[in-house]
Design brief:
The protein is α/β, with parallel strands linked by helices and 247 residues long. The protein is built from 6 helices and 12 strands. The chain starts with a strand and ends with a strand.
């Protein structure tokens, strides 16, 4: 077994790693929330869009969608999946747009890729500036005070003769503004088993702190992390969907 022997570029494994994600359900849920809280427009940008699966669903639902990411190989895949869309290599904490947007999304807890409160605050300000009047910024987040370091998720997927096992879990020390997402990919076949491990630094924030950062810019609505039914957040669970309407 070789450790860290798998490719350091995740783009080739990203879709396989996310095979169990229901992109359509997630996209439909945010589209419903946008219909309720938004301005009726269809100009959409997906932050940290990865290989573009959410963008594909928004385009198919009638949106004029675009995406940005800091990983060019991911964007190359996204451009093939969504040739109608514009994809740009940008950081979500410093991004610019040429025309006002009606909806900005950030799925899969990617808002936490803003590494630190300062960058998160800048991202929020950039999203506010990029939105048209009554535009909506939607994302999901995890409360640092509710993270259980002992929990992780796992799934397997087969690609030709290879069996992949993917594991991921949050880790927070209990102090400060940094948490991490720990990832592991195991690739096994008849000849060998390879393992690749990584730890992604991310911003740690409580929901109270996050709401305080958002409130100067947005009217904030918080919902349960449920893509099947729109339910207000119960003030207990550690995962939630934030719907932020531009003031």
């Amino acid at each position: 077994m070789s450790v860290n022997a798998l490719y350091t570029d995740l783009s080739g494994y990203y879709d396989l790693m996310c095979l169990d994600i229901d992109y359509q359900a997630q996209s439909n849920a945010i589209r419903r929330l946008h219909q309720i809280f938004g301005n009726g427009g269809t100009a959409h940008l997906d932050l940290a869009c990865g290989t573009g699966p959410h963008v594909r669903h928004f385009i198919d639902s009638g949106y004029a969608s675009s995406g940005l990411d800091i990983n060019q190989p991911m964007l190359d895949i996204a451009a093939k999946r969504c040739p109608e869309a514009l994809f740009t290599l940008q950081d979500m904490s410093t991004f610019d747009v040429s025309e006002p947007l009606d909806l900005i999304t950030c799925f899969l807890y990617s808002i936490h890729y803003n590494d630190g409160i300062e960058k998160l605050t800048t991202c929020i300000a950039r999203a506010h500036r990029a939105l048209a009047t009554d535009g909506v910024f939607c994302f999901n987040a995890v409360d640092k005070d509710k993270i259980d370091n002992g929990l992780s998720v796992k799934h397997t997927a087969r690609q030709e003769s290879d069996l992949f096992t993917f594991r991921s879990g949050w880790h927070y020390s209990g102090q400060g503004e940094r948490q991490s997402l720990r990832l592991s990919i195991e690739k096994a076949n008849a000849d060998a088993t390879q393992v690749w491990n990584d730890e992604h630094p991310m911003v740690a924030v409580s929901f109270a702190e996050l709401t305080a950062l958002l409130t100067p810019y947005f009217e904030v609505h918080v919902f349960e992390h449920n893509y099947e039914t729109i339910i207000p957040w119960d003030n207990v669970s550690g995962n939630a969907i934030f719907v932020c309407v531009k003031r």
